[in-house]
Amino acid sequence: MPYESPSPDLPYSPGNPWPLGATWDGAGTQFALYSGVAEQVELCLFAADGQQEQARIPLTCTDGIWHGYLHGCRPGTLYGYRVHGPYLPEAGDRCNGAKLLLDPYAKSLQGPLRACPEHLGYGPQDDNPDTTDNAAHVPKCIVVDDQFDWGDDRPPAIPPDQTVLYELHVKGFTRQHPDVPEAQRGTYAGLASDGSIAHLQGLGVTSVELLPIHAFLDDQRLLDLGLVNYWGYNTLAFFAPEPRYAQGDPVNEFKAMVRALHRAGLEVILDVVYNHTGEGNERGPTLNLRGIDNAAYYWLQPEDRSRCLDFTGTGNSLDLRQPAALRLVMDSLRYWVQEMHVDGFRFDLATTLARGSQGYDPQSAFLSAVAQDPVLARVKWIAEPWDVGLGGYQVGAFPRGWHEWNGRYRDAVRDFWRGEPGALPGLTAALCGSAELYAPARRTPSASVNFVTAHDGFTLHDLVSYHGKHNLANGEDNRDGESHNRSWNCGAEGPTDDPAIQALRERQKRNLLATLCLSQGMPMLVAGDEMGRTQQGNNNAYCQDNPLSWLDWSEARCADPLVDFVRHLLRLRQAQPLLRSEHWRTGLVDAQGHKDITWVSVWGQEMTSQEWTQPDVRCFGAWLQGADDQRLLLLFNASADLALFTLPPTHATHAPHGWCVLIDTAEPTGQRTDPLHRVDGARVPLGAHSLLVLGAPST
Fold first, then answer.
1. Of 68, 472, 501, 607, whose CB has the highest number of CB atoms within 10 Å?
2. Which of 93, 279, 348, 404 is catalytic?
3. Considering the entire predicted model, what is its pTM?
4. Is domain 586-695 given the CATH code 3.30.465.10 in the classification?
């Protein structure tokens, strides 16, 4: 619908205080904004260029909600707010009518945010507000029409035990994809294209986890360096899709993407940043919440309310103890489920969302609100269960029904395969879904989101190619990013022509991926790891919107045998209920005389307590048994030597004709060239730094 500049004399009536935001009803638009401290709120309407302010309309107040109805105000109208009220930083109030503010409930934005001093709401001494108008430099909110033809869209509703997450960046995934139409590369439409979907379906993943797509802003420091906030963890608007990933209308293009992915059987999970906003600390810009009602949205220091409390490392933290802040987050979540049809959320720094006055609180307002919300009950909830505040690391402490990024899993798997002494107990716990974290609270194994790599840190290829980070391109003298990566370069730092090191690196990648897919819990892969994507040792490429971060879809990368290896792994995981069990393994003998898991040594005998405690044990087996005589034997060798593994007596009894090799990480595709895949005899050669999965011939 073409945009027509609003007339300053549109018929106005007070309307209603609900719903918050701008709501088009076919005849006009209802506007509503919460501010408990405002003395007056003006709705500002703009011409189509977003620069000419054509009207300021004072709104009516009901119980802290400022509202009004404009008859004839149509979708496409550009607007913002000016909030007049107390500027008393020492009391936590920072209203400033000179600053045009974004609607926290805006569903779409027009124009970029231009960083400039005009956005600063404070004067030189912070005791008086700055009176410079910033409207020319602020994106304008857009009234939208929510109508969209969803057709027969249905959520895929993938059960947790069958879910395989695939973390990707909307732009980076398709920016260089040759099978995506050039105009669609780097956009929502590009992710929905046939070329993108074919790769996702071919791999066997079930759910794409998108790095932040809420409209976000670029930090001034990065812009000064010629960089941007590529990852998007700097939210500006919790309801608006990021416009830089759209060819035209970001709202409808996002919806069309979700519809296409659903038709392909793929879930859409959003990585959401509700723990802070892009306004930064008290010296940051005044763009929306700070100028609307600072103390109703942000944590403030109790001894000095002019300053922010920062649990996130970004300068501010959203305070979900406050009704306005909690309502904003919950309304946003419901909007993305009901209106945008997404299937779940991964919450960045989720500990901040669940903080109470005494720290992390499992009975917090946010966690309680989520638990009782009928709209949100059907979607997946994934916590990044830490923040940078005191007591912030809360892996295992979220309530039942939540899934958690399991950092302990990542560390244990990395340590074992790089040969760290004493890593065996951690690896075996990881294989069993980290029961020590989740079973006591009667949570299931899928509570653990297992990952070896994520967007934050080394790629899989770099994890086996670099000992240290190489982040100079970020402009922080290599100070940023994690310094303790638990990585191993296999004998050379970075690229090498040594064929032995190259082969070892490829084998290590297969070992790490195989361990991930053989573990109980919900596995997460990172886009490009299946094609050997490298960031040249940069483990914090948050500001690199360039080929360093974009996926390389060249013929050589697409032909990487690792792609077929991942496909084979995921097919095996789907076909083997033993690998996806939601029942905790106990190691106890059942009524039939079987154990659901038996840990065996290289000699084929059950491991002794002495072997468990020896720090140099790097070769062992896991013998899994399930219903209907399901059985698998997983053999691990993280040492630098060939091992001859004696098959346990159970195998000799029940498998007189040999065993299938289902996975062999010594092979580039994980599959033996022998078409029968048989292992005969009592001893199996297990190559250095390798893993075998054996099954019965009928498996």
1. 68
2. 348
3. 0.96
4. no
Domain spanning 12-142: which CATH class is it, in words?
mainly beta
Helix (H), strand (E) at residue 526? strand 522-526
Catalytic site includes residue 667: no
Please determine whether the domains at 12-142 and 586-695 fall in the same fold group of CATH.
yes
- Please report, for residues 210, 312, 413, 416, 618, the alpha-carbon distance to residue 540 in angstroms, rounded to integers and kept in the order given: 17, 16, 21, 24, 31
CATH code for the part of the protein at 161-578: 3.20.20.80
Cα 331 to chain centroid, rounded: 20
Known active-site residue 242:
no
CA 463 – CA 533 distance, rounded (Å): 11
What are 527-552's pLDDT values in tens digits? 999 999 999 999 999 999 999 999 99
**Residue 533, φ and ψ in degrees, nearest 5:** -65, 135
| CA 607 – CA 149 distance, rounded (Å) | 60
Which one, of 277, 335, 1, 331, lies nearest residue 145 by Cα?
1
- pLDDT value at 282 more than 90: yes
Confidence of residue 2 (pLDDT cuts 50, 70, 90): very low
SS (H, E, C) 667-691: CCCCCCCCCCCEECCCEEEECCCEE
**Catalytic annotation, pick one of 53, 384, 462, 596:** 384
Q: Domain coordinates of the chain in residue numbers? A: 12-142, 161-578, 586-695
- The string of pLDDT tens digits covering residues 425-438 is 999 999 999 999 99
| Helix, strand or coil, per DSSP, at residue 289 | helix
Q: 439 burial class (0-12, 13-18, 19+ CB within 10 angstroms)? A: middle
Q: What are the DSSP E strand ranges found in 273-354? A: 300-301, 304-308, 344-347
Mean of pLDDT over the chain: 94
Across the strands, what pairs with 360? 355
- For the beta carbon of residue 195, count every other beta carbon within 10 angstroms: 17
> Would you say residue 138 has pLDDT above 60?
yes
Length of the chain equals 699
